Amino acid sequence: MRSTSFINPRQHWFIRWKLYHIPFWFVYLYLWWATTIGSPLQAANNLFSPYGIKTLFYIVFQALAVYFNLYYLIPKYLEKSRFSEYIPYLVLTILFAAACIVPGYYLSALLTGHTLKELYGVDSFNLYYLYTGNPLSSTAASMTLAMSIKLAKNWLQTQRRHQALEKEKLETELNFLKYQFNPHFLFNTINSIFFLIHKNPDMASASLAKFSELLRYQLYECNDKQILLSKEIAYLENSIELEKLRQNDNVEVSLRVDQPSFEDLGIAPFILMTFVENAFKHVSKETDKPNWIKIRLQLQRRQLDLSVSNSVSPCSSADVLHYGGIGLKNVQRRLDLIYPGQYDLDIKNNDLRFEVRLRLQLSELMIPLPVPRTA
Prior knowledge:
Blueprint: E1 2-4, H1 13-16, H2 21-37, H3 40-46, H4 52-78, H5 83-112, H6 116-120, H7 127-132, H8 134-180, H9 183-199, H10 201-221, E2 227-228, H11 229-246, E3 251-257, E4 265-267, H12 271-282, E5 291-300, E6 303-311, H13 328-338, E7 343-349, E8 353-361, E9 363-364
Parallel strand pairs: 3-5
Antiparallel strand pairs: 1-7, 2-4, 4-9, 5-6, 6-8, 7-8
Helix pairs in contact: 2-3, 4-5, 4-8, 5-8, 9-10, 9-11, 10-11, 11-12
């Protein structure tokens, strides 16, 4: 069985393991001491024995404080606008890290056989001066610098993502327009309904209503970046019913929706339909073997799981990896732009079966309240 996965291009080990952080801290401490002391030579001397032990304390505890702030406090509190909780935790982190640096002064003096007065010109009992001097100010400065770099990097990434989204939106809209007004699709669907009028008028009437809803959705209701998940599911169900009209009787189609209520969750339009459309396009057409399409939707809190599988003919299994007008790479590209770090896509293909599993983290759709009319 062949499995399609998405792996980032291989990076140099120095970048992949983020070892560039080590020289960053040495350079930062050197520049800090050079500025504080006013002597570049004496600042360089602080990086080595007998001051090297103290330098190690600075690097370890300031790095721990910075990374704790960047990868825990900021995502959990600052990015969620929980400022009343973030600020006290940030202050406590700075105070604690500075306090952990102070023992480095005593340890360097002990191991080198000198006193604090000889090494640093500070009396050993003057803890307040040691604490409020370089440890506290240097830790606060390192936290501020790291936060500035992190926030600036996030801002640049957000700007680039918005620009890429705008460009992707234009390209996607062109693809949607081609699909919406595809004469082949319209002709086949209308032709199927036309034959149903004489064969089964009630079914033809219901199919025509579904076809009308499908066109209305495509033309008017899917122009926003996010739409209600319930509308996307309704569109999906209507499309499946219409696709059934175009398939042979020997194709078995099953749709299972495990959670009928989708609350007020939002989703990008046409994300789900792309995979379903591919299943109908590439399902096997064997006369002596079962042909089938299985679609399952499951919602657990805000996690949406989509599973689409279909039978394929051995000679055409390689072609299934191409999704009509919107290829596999375009689908993943949209997911990367709209749901970065919020989805898992697993695609498996062999000579008899093609399966797609998509796990998507959704969020509530903010529906604007209607503006009251004024007399």
